[in-house]
Amino acid sequence: MVARVAGVFDEKLTEAIANSKVLVVGAGGIGCEILKNLVLTGFPNIEIIDLDTIDVSNLNRQFLFHKEHVGKSKAQVAKDSALSFNPNVNIVAHHDSVISNEYGVSYFKKFNIVMNALDNRVARNHVNRMCLAADVPLVETGTAGYAGQVELIKKGLTQCYECLPKAPQKSFPGCTIRNTPSEPIHCIVWAKHLFNQLFGEEDPDQNVSPDTADPEAAGDAGASALNAKESETGNVDRKSTRMWAAETNYDPEKLFSKLFGDDIRYLLSMENLWKKRRPPTPLVWDNLPGKDDSPAKHSGLPDQRVWSVSECAQIFATSCKALEADLKSRPDGDHLVWDKDEKSAMDFVTACANVRAYIFNIPLKSRFEIKSMAGNIIPAIATANAIVAGLAVLRAQNILKGNIEDCTSVYLRPKVNHRGQLFVPEKTLTTPNPKCFVCAPKAEVALACNLKQLTLKDLNTALKEGLNMQAPDAAVEGKGLVVLSSEPGETDHNNHKTLEQIGLNDGCALLVDDFLQNFEVRVRLQQEDDEKSWRLVTDMDTPMPEPKEDKPTNGANGSEPKPGPSRPKDDSDSDMEIIEEDEGVETTKPPKRRRIEVSDDIVELC
Ligand SMILES: Nc1ncnc2c1ncn2[C@@H]1O[C@H](COP(=O)(O)OP(=O)(O)OP(=O)(O)O)[C@@H](O)[C@H]1O
Ligand SMILES: [Zn+2]
Fold this sequence. Notes:
- The chain is built from 15 helices and 17 strands.
- With about 600 residues, the protein is of the alpha/beta class.
- It has an eight-stranded mixed β-sheet, sandwiched between helices. Strands 12-11-13-14-10-15 form a six-stranded mixed β-sheet. The protein has a three-stranded mixed β-sheet with strand order 7-17-16.
- Strand 2, helix 3 (about 75-85) and strand 3 (about 90-95) form a beta-alpha-beta unit.
- Helix 2 (about 30-40) packs parallel to helix 3, helix 7 (about 185-200) crosses helix 12 (about 345-360) and helix 11 (about 310-330) packs across helix 12 (about 345-360).
- It starts with 10 loop residues before the first helix and ends with a strand.
- Bound molecules: adenosine-5'-triphosphate and zinc ion.
């Protein structure tokens, strides 16, 4: 079974593989495939790190895992399954976050190659920095549906993972979704969560009830306004939405009155929320706007007409009943899976999102518009993962053979391009961005802020959130004066002081380093009186000289061409870029807010 047999690889490669040590980060869709390929190719020394345990939803594409493994460590089970293909391999499994202190630069230096099979930017950024610091080649992989990409990152030779600014990820605070929506997408995300609470897989992270822990509402959350009547109909906190709905036999009127009446009144009772916002308007089933109107004339497709609130309520009722029937027709414990192409599921989300939008004075949207926003899910495709993993291991072999210059980025196209190619390799390696604040020899960024308002604590947040640092220390350049220390207690007493109060002024340069990442950057303070918070300014937004290809690259999903230096790109007509779907990572120092994934939307819980 193992390919390490005479004649398969040339002698040089066979020997290089025999002497290699490889680290695989992530044992998910791509990681499992990489591990399987490595052991079948005869790589003798492999370490694998994954922080997660196996979920039922992984089984359809992560073939090293089976039903009996659900709940167990991904890294450990991946190791055990891979050993069954080739027991002669030495695999070390770590059930841990790669961001943990355990894996410092000296750990990374042990390896000839690191292979990333991650699903979030925070971890990717971290491994990128560790590999730059350890000067180990990193094979970075990713897929988005049928598309995929394999990219080599090597200090001084290629672009690093952070050489180009990334499009901001969609991210909404959980309290915005539950308490204070202000955009249609907030209502759509809420409606999809509601679908799951009522008919789908219940997820505590997708609670749709008013969030009493919202820091903005602090003090008076749910104080006085709830009366006995509301408690009878199902207090938001005491019962799960599903349980309560089942008890009412999914009575549309009762559901509607709770979700769009009682819960909204409960929110109104959190008075702090509405001091600077227009308060929501609770709705009453018997008296809905648009009830007596005849449908407005509409010339487009039926799905492009925006329903009135009254129509939404009708559609809510019919879709609720259809979904209830569907749920009841299934074996006990089974649930529905939201699907934009399933009529009742899509109707339900459109109706709920629009009713909620009306309540919060947000523009209503057509079913067509909501479908495109709500259905923007990028599925994980097993074949795409397998192909990318195969390409990654081929790249690893090339690196071991000493042919690193040949390891150009390779793109897996969702369909063959006009040249008949499914795999499109770059012609040359993409050179580092000299202005990159991570890998440039003199990495520098400016921090635009109001020094009279930004506190030391805010500076710490800016460094962590803006520069993806884990444990920043900052000292004034030239003076060596430490203004921010990652050691607990050392500078905490200054946390509430403004930067001005601690003696920092416009133009002052801070040398900021993160011992966990072996990463240092010069941060120049830039006074801006009008800046309410902070903003990082890098030269990376400045376009670099024209890249070799004649066409600009579009962002993911055909958005506008992105500014910035030559992003690795293929030469086909339609462009693709890997989209990260999740930022749900554990770090050694857990962030204050937990982020959860909602299909392609990221929700940040307060
Ligand atoms: N900081 C980290 N340290 C170690 N492993 C990580 C870290 N962050 C993410 N991972 C792992 O990377 C893997 C990525 O795999 P994949 O993209 O297939 O995600 P998944 O969680 O298995 O599947 P899905 O997200 O589609 O349900 C996951 O197993 C995840 O646990
Ligand atoms: Zn870089």
